Amino acid sequence: MSEDSQVTPPPTESRLYFRQLLSGQDFAISDPIARQMVNFSYLIGDRETHEAVVVDPAYAVDDLLDMLAEDDMALTGVLATHFHADHVGGNMMGYSIEGVAQLLERQGTKIHLQAPEAELVRKTTGISVDDMELHAPGDVVSVGAIDIELLHTPGHTPGSQCFLVAGALVAGDTLFLDGCGRMDLPGSDPAAMYRSLHDTLAKVPDETVLFPGHRYSFEPSATMGQTRQMNYVFKPSSEAQWLMMFGQG
Fold it and tell me: Which pLDDT belongs to residue 249?
């Protein structure tokens, strides 16, 4: 197990179970696409009730289920940051990636999504609407006594969401330590991304630890205060400046 998988958010919840897992290194070790894409998956749960959810399961769902079992945790749900196949499974670059469809076959549960992402996830993964629990911005998913707030952060995709839990922000492809998710893909929106970063995530305190969807920087996590200071996406002071920076002005 790498040191990355032992990184935890500030211990504001003594019963919090939290693991950050790097694809191609901590799981899906033999998968060359997993090693190339350097996705993070996350396990979040309640150590006392032994319930847990997995965030963005892709590449090797049996590995993730085995890790939960080794930790004496039971899967009770899936959280998806957005519909792209490297996060939820499906076809990408001519490759078929294992993900939520296979996980739900093995473990009957629901995947929690922002409503605008539902049809995109269905097309990407082949799962049905009956497999989904659709949410609105600000909804909370509880795992035992652990509350996970769902922040709708469109920009990378229409229904992108981040998860705020016990001093941690699991951000998917909305925000990395350096940069943010691409805004030149189908369904992306640079103006919406600006508002997600500068308005929605403005509520997240500086001491909150950012856990991104990919390891695109040397460190696997950083505080939001450090990220706001160092990440260029927080430099523009207006939406107009932002759009000009990305050639949209």
Answer: 59
β-strand partners of 23: 27
Q: Of 129, 122, 110, nearest to 53 (Cα)? A: 110
In terms of Cα–Cα distance, which of 101, 95, 15 is closest to 57? 101
d(CA 177, CA 220): 8
Whether the pTM exceeds 0.85: the reply is: yes
Pairing of strands 161-165, 146-152: antiparallel
**DSSP code at position 27:** B
Calpha distance 182→242 (Å, rounded): 14
Q: 77-109 pLDDT, tens per residue? A: 999 999 999 999 999 888 899 999 999 999 989
85, 108 contact by CB (below 8 A): no
Beta bridge partners of 43: 19, 54
Mean pLDDT of the chain: 93
d(CA 178, CA 160): 18
Query: Positive or negative, the Cα torsion across 47, 99, 213, 240?
Result: negative
Distance CA 72, CA 50 (A): 7
